[in-house]
Amino acid sequence: MRNIFVKEEVNTARQIEFDIAKVLCIILMIFIHCFEQFGCFSDCSSHPLYYVVVIVMDVLFCASVFVGSMGLGMAYSKAQNPEDIIRRGVRLFIAGYALNILRSTIDVVFSSFGITSWNDTLIYIFESDILQFAGLSFILFGFLKKIKCTDLMIFIIALGMSTVGSFVRFIDLGNVHINQLVGLFIGTFDPILEDETACFPLFNWFILVVICYLYAKKLRHCNNTNRFYSMALLPSGVIVGAYMLYAIPNRYGMLSNTLLYFYNFSTYNVLFLISGIIFLTSVYHFALKFISERLIKKIFLTSSNLTPIYFVQWIIIGNMYSIFEYLELESIHLSTIIFIAVCVIVISVLLGNRCPKSIKKIIS
């Protein structure tokens, strides 16, 4: 291992395995969102596929990879100026709430005409999600860089936040909107929203961004990625596999029947999440040998449009959910949900990749 890493930055080119991870992640994420949102209109929540998609895939191979890619991207981004990082964070934070309004358009219309309750609509509008977390993470990371914190200091701060988040969680403050607001930072819990009260609390999740940032910075000094990934593949796979073998049959921890313990994960769970990221990027690195140049260009395009794609899929899914809820549907088959997911993936990728640069600059 000592011979693989050198003092000079020799691996500064675009890391295609990161792009593959992000593209597959956004596709899987759309699939997961369709299962989550439309599963309540059927009995598929008891189906084994529902658990595999919504819990196992989301926990180990989707949301954590999506968050981790922020740190990976930070290390390889040309925009290293703290002010630029903070400004991007502000844009993402605002974009998160703008998306909440857009994906609740039908609810806003229904509420305006008295068809549905404004209180329910406001809950949707003030919902915390990954964009709000991304915004806060960039703001915090940029601020720490601005006050000249070293990488070690940033890690210690992130570790301290994670430790606090591990103990200060599952807190009900007695008001759904206060729970949502405070849930941006710590793991609150509301009886109305249950495991979606605080999806990505900053105190719990910031450490994953920082570790992935440090990991990617180390990769910049790697003079033999083939050798590194061949060495990293087995141990990271064993760690993830061992966790799955224990957690899945026992419905333990992050892989229990609720996402509550994932969204508000304890510090030690970072080991399993970062191992999943390393395992996947190792697999994708060697998969590159079987991918054509034409496909790689499409991967680059889709990877650079993740936020627009994320916007489109939620606008479709969110408003479809509102319509289904108004119609009081109760008989959607699992095959129908899969069909909807495939359609949403195709539409979201096509529209997201054609997003005007002016809009893309605002929301990402």
Task: Please give a structural write-up.
The protein has 364 residues and is mainly alpha-helical. It has helices at residues 16-38, 48-61, 63-76, 82-102, 105-112, 118-125, 130-146, 151-167, 176-182, 202-219, 225-250, 260-263, 270-287, 293-303, 306-327, 334-352, 357-363, and strands at 169-171, 187-188. The chain has a two-stranded parallel ribbon. Helix 9 (176-182) links the parallel strand 1 and strand 2 (187-188). Helix 1 (16-38) packs antiparallel against helix 3 and helix 1 crosses helix 13 (270-287). The mean pLDDT is 92.
Q: Any key phrases for this structure?
A:
single chain; 364 residues; mainly alpha; two-stranded parallel sheet; globular
Blueprint of the fold:
Elements: H1 16-38, H2 48-61, H3 63-76, H4 82-102, H5 105-112, H6 118-125, H7 130-146, H8 151-167, E1 169-171, H9 176-182, E2 187-188, H10 202-219, H11 225-250, H12 260-263, H13 270-287, H14 293-303, H15 306-327, H16 334-352, H17 357-363
Parallel strand pairs: 1-2
Helix pairs in contact: 1-2, 1-3, 1-13, 1-14, 1-15, 1-16, 3-10, 4-7, 7-10, 8-10, 11-13, 15-16
